[in-house]
Design a protein that fits this description.
By secondary structure, the protein is of the alpha/beta class. The protein folds into two domains: about 270 residues, Aldolase class I (TIM Barrel, Alpha-Beta Barrel); about 90 residues, Recoverin, domain 1 (Orthogonal Bundle), CATH 1.10.238. It is about 45% helix and about 15% strand. The chain is built from 15 helices and ten strands. It has an eight-stranded parallel beta barrel with strand order 1-2-3-4-5-6-7-8, surrounded by eight helices. It has a two-stranded parallel ribbon with strand order 9-10. Helix 14 packs across helix 15. It binds 3-methyl-2-oxobutanoic acid and zinc ion. Zinc ion (ZN) binds next to loops.
Length: about 375
């Protein structure tokens, strides 16, 4: 099995489904170009039949983005597939992403189909889509809550019909990592023609397990991850691109897998997506949050100032951040204060410094953070 994990970015499709987010075509192209530059393999550009605006976006991205596969989402319906194929026409490489639900819940309450009817509909959709491109991805919506035996049957028939990537979505963010691992591994081991397709993780974050589930899927043999920048998406969002990429990178001892992403571009694209979508990144967000490389307590500052790796497993330069930050608060110690004063060009005798430190603590007790202006005031007192 290859060690290369394909990155399928769905910021512009599932990400844009975040309540309150609307990107215009120019904004999508701006993000799309940065995604290509970042090194993702597939850009899911939208759901062409959903609106004329979405059709135009997919069509424009298909024309403007080079060196990447452009994907359009469809339901398992001929009309959807035709419209997607039309929108994707200018793409260098095009993928149609079609599919249907597989859980009892979706079959009964949403699709109102029997298992056999749903399977037949899916097979027909894949065969129909194959006339437009050889690159067909099939999503089995709500796989996380489905009967694995039925999932195996669907996968076998869908691969036989011509699908080349099988998406195993945990649509509702329901599974535990060990369950998702066994789901993917079970498919690969039990489906006779599983070697003919790539398996893809598409996990939602309703219980905060999207990244863990995606990595568990890779451990189980999946070689594509479906992610969004900053983890934006429906409800609690999708799996965050930057988290999966960095987890694979930092813990390459564990999974021995690589992506084609240039990690130094993670922070710039995170900021761009936050700005254009208006979805603010929480300060303590993994990898790209404002606090991700900031140290405030005295014990941590002391460690980091002696050797960064004592409290940082990611070198901030690796993700495009400037450097680790020493933030002065009431929890900070002498090492942190001395370091910040030194950076500002101030070095004091121990007696004077001790006096300043005591003054600093008084100020620190009254505010969340002691900034450079406060320090200057203390020094000039
Ligand atoms: O979450 C999901 O199941 C999806 C599919 C449409 C791929 O987004
Ligand atoms: Zn989704």
């Amino acid at each position: 099995m290859s060690n290369r994990v394909l990155v399928f970015d769905t910021t512009l499709r599932d990400g844009e489904q975040s309540p309150g987010v609307r990107l215009n075509v120019d904004e999508k192209v701006e993000i799309g170009l940065k995604l290509v530059d970042l090194g993702v393999d597939i850009v899911e550009a939208g759901f062409p039949i959903s609106s004329p605006g979405d059709f135009e976006s997919v069509n424009t991205l298909a024309r403007e983005l080079r060196g990447v596969t452009i994907c359009g989402l469809t339901r398992a319906r001929e009309k959807d597939i035709e419209v997607a194929a039309e929108a994707l026409k200018p793409a260098e490489r095009r993928r149609i992403h079609t599919g249907l639900g597989v859980s009892d819940n979706h079959l009964e309450f949403k699709l109102r189909m029997t298992k056999e009817e749903a399977l037949e509909t899916g097979v027909k959709a894949v065969r129909y889509a194959r006339q437009f491109t050889d690159d067909i991805e099939y999503f089995m919506e709500d796989s996380g809550r489905a009967d694995p035996e039925y999932v195996y049957k669907v996968v076998e028939s869908i691969i036989a019909a011509g699908a080349t990537t099988i998406n195993v979505p945990d649509t509702t963010g329901f599974t535990y990592p060990n369950e998702y691992y066994h789901l993917i591994k079970g498919i690969i081991e039990n489906v006779p023609n599983s070697d003919k397709a790539v398996f893809s993780c598409h996990c939602h974050n309703d219980l905060g397990m999207a990244t863990a589930n995606t990595l568990a899927g890779v451990l189980g043999g999946a070689r594509q991850v479906e992610v969004t920048v900053n983890g934006i998406g429906e409800r609690a969002g999708n799996t965050a691109l930057e988290e999966v990429v960095m987890a694979l990178h930092i813990r390459s001892d564990k999974l021995h897998c690589q992506t084609g992403v240039d990690t130094r571009k993670l922070l710039p694209i995170s900021r761009l997506v936050a700005k254009l979508t208006g979805m603010v990144v929480q300060r303590n967000k993994s990898v790209v949050g404002a606090n991700a490389y900031a140290h405030s307590s005295g014990i941590h500052q002391d460690g980091v100032l002696k050797e960064r790796s004592t409290y940082e497993i990611i070198d901030p330069l690796l993700v495009g951040a400037e450097r680790s930050e020493i933030v002065l608060t009431a929890r900070s110690g002498r090492h942190g204060l001395k370091y910040r004063l030194h950076e500002m060009g101030f070095d004091f005798t121990s007696e004077r410094f001790e006096h300043l430190y005591n003054e600093f603590l008084k100020v620190a007790d009254t505010k969340q953070e002691v900034d450079e202006d406060d320090l200057r005031e203390l020094v000039n007192k």
